[in-house]
Amino acid sequence: MIPRTTACRGVPRALCQHAVRPAQRRGLASPASGSFQYQSGDAKGVKFASRDFAGPTTTLALVAKAGTRFQPLPGLTEGLASFAFKGTERRSTLRIVREAELLGAQLNAYHTRENLVLEARFLRDDLPYFVELFGEVVSSTKFLPYVFSEEVLTQVEFAHKRFLANTVDMALNSAHSLAFHRGLGTPTVSASSIAYTKYLDYDSVEYFSKIAYAKPNFAVVANGADHGELSKWVGEFFENAPAEPLDNKSVGSEQTKYYGGEERIAHSGRNAYVIAFPGSSSFTGKFYKPEIAVLASLLGGEASVKWSTGFSLLANAKASAGTQVITKSAIYSDAGLLHTTITGGAENVAATAKTAVELIQKIASGDIPKEIFQKARAQAKFRELEYGQDQRAALELTGAGLVHNTQPYQIDEVAKAIDGVTEAAVKSAAKSLLESKASVSAVGDLHALPYAEELGLKI
Amino acid sequence: MSAPSLAPYIIKRPWLRRWVQPLANWYVNAAGYRQLGLKADDILPEENDVVQLALKRLPPKEAYDRVYRLRRAFQCSVSHQLLPKEEWTKDEEDTPYLTVLIKEIETEMAEREDLEAMVVTKRQAKANAGK
């Protein structure tokens, strides 16, 4: 006997497949992954997007413009993220957890520099339950003093302690704050206990929630849900969310400016050294420079094949096998940071940092074999496409795109832009890095770690 | 630790309340804690997890005031004296500041017990689909 539900569900799916097919007739090498083909809409002021991805599970995310960049006081983003899925007017914390467990779902809340993301993964049929849960979290979370002191504050303190022990995190956050000062430069976790002893409190978090969870400031994104159904439930369950932010002071929304500088922090843990330069904004931003991505993979430091050093310049030139080097181009909506992180023994880190600067000078003078350049370009393209296909990143990017009212992230065009990068463009990008001010941060044994000026960088 | 109480039953019936109220007033005065400046919630037995948690959840100001009242009462008791009459706890000051928290914690614990003892059944639609 054919169950009725299955018989009905087959029809829209068959229609969907039919509609999608022409797009998939491109050649195999085409980067049309489809991961960004979200349908977007607006239900009673709440922006949402969905992609009906055939499969038994759904990932639902609520992306709020409330990352550390946008917090009016230090620690609020962290506090709000920890208050997610805590007791609401209708349900207790315990009930939310137990119900989610019974449905076999996973709940998660995290934040980045620009966004606060609530995420739920569950079986396809449970969509209404989780949309309702998100609606409740947004509009009726109870910000109780004892929940704050018993559950939220402990998590914030743990994050702070973990941060103090992690020299790489310290160096990266320090480089960001040197580069961007306020806004994007705000550390992602409490860098000192001042944040949660002086500013963070249950009522300041409640105040921030009224801004972060106001309808213009968040978007609901679903992966693997029917668009019509999502639209219906979003319209029904987000009625109580505040229509306008409580306070229109828009902290952090001004254009980010690059400053640069140097910071040295003594630490008895692992040595970490970060050399950072102004980078590229995301594709949707105004300062998109594809050559920065190619430059990042050209400098590199990590191998993509196991048991080999790889092709990248830094991986071959680093002082010892135990020294770890990673070059990344961190992209944000209106600015970016190209940073090389070096960790390991102090002497090796110092030597590798010197080499890194020499390598950038070498790239600027055009001394790089064509073959390596081509490899770097291919890797940059692959990384970009892979990142775009990653479900989590795609959800956050799509949601952020909806909230910031920018153009959608078009993966095909990003790949094309990287393909169009020439050797000359990378050469001139490297030259401009050396001419601009660097952001250099050293954490660890300061006797051995060099000053930026000793490396020949402009500060 | 809230003990079973007839009070809600009586308060609902005004005629009964009119009879019992004077008796209650007499009892509260005779109990003697108000003459030491205490509130009724100050003398709840606190040697158990529920009340300990409730005490932790008190706002700092109320927790401070509670300790102050307890120490003052202890001092009075040691010196075999009562407070001057104007410092006795007034009727409107005798508020259940702790009982509210205790009840909340008890509902939380009862909910946990209920969830532990829950019997999970398949949703009807799914049960049918599986046949």
Automatic annotation (TrEMBL), chain A:
Residues 54-185 form the Peptidase M16 N-terminal domain. Pfam families: Peptidase_M16 (PF00675), Peptidase_M16_C (PF05193). It is found in: Mitochondrion inner membrane. InterPro entries: Metalloenz_LuxS/M16 (IPR011249), MPP/UQCRC_Complex (IPR050361), Pept_M16_N (IPR011765), Peptidase_M16_C (IPR007863). One of its GO terms (molecular function) is metal ion binding. The keyword Transit peptide applies. Gene3D superfamilies: Metalloenzyme, LuxS/M16 peptidase-like. One of its GO terms (cellular component) is mitochondrial inner membrane. It comes from the Eukaryota. Residues 200-379 form the Peptidase M16 C-terminal domain. It is a peripheral membrane protein. Keywords: Electron transport, Membrane, Mitochondrion, Mitochondrion inner membrane, Respiratory chain, Transit peptide, Transport. Belongs to the peptidase M16 family. UQCRC2/QCR2 subfamily. This is Cytochrome b-c1 complex subunit 2, mitochondrial. It comes from Massariosphaeria phaeospora.
From TrEMBL, chain B:
Coiled coil: none annotated. It comes from the Eukaryota. It is found in: Mitochondrion inner membrane. Component of the ubiquinol-cytochrome c oxidoreductase, a multisubunit transmembrane complex that is part of the mitochondrial electron transport chain which drives oxidative phosphorylation. This is Cytochrome b-c1 complex subunit 7. GO terms for cellular component: mitochondrial inner membrane; respiratory chain complex III. It is a peripheral membrane protein. Pfam families: UCR_14kD (PF02271). GO terms for biological process: mitochondrial electron transport, ubiquinol to cytochrome c. Belongs to the UQCRB/QCR7 family. The lineage of its organism: Eukaryota, Fungi, Dikarya, Ascomycota, Pezizomycotina. Keywords: Electron transport, Membrane, Mitochondrion, Mitochondrion inner membrane, Respiratory chain, Transport. InterPro entries: QCR7, QCR7_sf. The keyword Membrane applies.
